[in-house]
Write a structure and sequence with these properties.
mainly alpha, 2 helices, 0% strand, elongated
Length: 54
Amino acid sequence: MYLWIWRHLPAKSPAAKAAITVILIGVIALALWYFAFPWLEPRIKFDHGTINEG
């Protein structure tokens, strides 16, 4: 799968492909950080743990 992605990047040199890859990973990380995670956080409630005392 990664080889397929590497072949389809729009550059000839490996350095340019690596730069494009780093930029794409950064864009995906920012999209997750600012859009996906804030939307998902109220639905999952990570900070509302419960402990049953028996």
